[in-house]
Amino acid sequence: MEQTTTIFGIRAIIEAIESETSIEKVYLQKGLRGELFFQLEKILKKQKISSSVVPIEKLNRLSKHSNHQGAVAKISPIDFQDLEVVIEDTLAANKVPLFLVLDQISDVRNFGAIIRTAECVGADAIIIQKSGSAPVNAETIKTSAGAAFKVPICKVDHVKDALFQLQASNIKLVAATEKTEESLYKVDLTTPLAIVMGSEHKGVSNSVLKMVDHKAKLPLLGEIASLNVSVACGAFLYETLRQRSI
Fold first, then answer.
1. Do the Cβ atoms of 128 and 83 come closer than 8 Å?
2. Are strands 125-129 and 214-216 parallel, antiparallel or unpaired?
3. CA angle 74, 24, 144 (to 5 degrees)
């Protein structure tokens, strides 16, 4: 299995970002200063790359005590796809599109399980936000049973950017949420579709809910108020597959 690669050194990380390498996260030494460091900080902010300020001991462990210069980066083990290209290719393939939009799902195990199910139902792409989303790391790939290498994953600056693009291509947006009375089983899922799943704690954000075409929920007959997001996502995806198989 391919693993996340670690690189270190401020200049090396800057060059990696400028060459459009998919950076998962950057760790910066607490108290670090200097012109090159500030340049890296500026690039991280501009590219919306996740970063954390950590003690030097953690950097020593991550770099195996190499000369990290106060900065260590983890490179994603997959190449993220361009959403616009993926949409165009999907529409040109003469099939009914099925996209999955994840609104800041942060748990890597949930993310990996969702990727696995999405690949099993033949989803065309998974769309995530650059900030606030679980990383695609070795644990994600392990949980996905390798599906992360098989289904396209697209990163966008904000989920709403993706929704605008999908709507412009006449793709219907259906959000999974308890803030509705409409059952999933009454929504037509046979048309070009993007399913929107929310974060583990907050669900789909209100600003995203305002954009979707339909809000749908799963029936809950027990005392527990909600399902695990990966389980709920599986139910949405397989109901889509069921409707399209009739």
1. no
2. unpaired
3. 105
Domains of the chain: 5-75 (3.30.1330.30), 83-245 (3.40.1280.10)
Helix (H) or strand (E) holding 74: strand 71-75
**Is residue 230 within 8 Å of 100, Cβ to Cβ?**
no
| pLDDT tens digits, one per residue of 153-169 | 999 989 999 999 999 99
User: Cα dist. 51→20, 22, 27, 131 in Å?
Assistant: 17, 14, 6, 10
C-alpha to C-alpha distance for 63 and 78, rounded to whole angstroms: 21
Which amino acid appears at position 70 of this protein? G
- By DSSP bridging, strand 5-8 and strand 71-75 are antiparallel
For residue 75, the cross-strand partners are 5, 23
Give tens-digit pLDDT for 112-157.
Answer: 999 999 999 999 999 999 888 888 887 898 999 999 999 999 999 8
- Please state, in angstroms and rounded to a whole number, the distance separating the CA atoms of residues 173 and 214: 6
Q: How far apart are CA 226 and CA 217, in angstroms?
A: 10
Please give the Cα distance from 239 to 243 (Å, whole number).
Answer: 6
Amino acid of residue 69? Q
Q: How many CA atoms lie within 13 A of 239 on its CB side?
A: 20
With CA atoms as reference, report the closest residue to 174 among 240, 116, 228, 106.
240
Q: What are phi and psi of 183, to 5 degrees?
A: -80, 145
Q: Write down the pTM of the prediction.
A: 0.83
Cα–Cα distance for residue pair 41/170, rounded to 1 Å: 38
**CA distances, 195 to each of 34, 144, 189 (Å):** 45, 19, 9
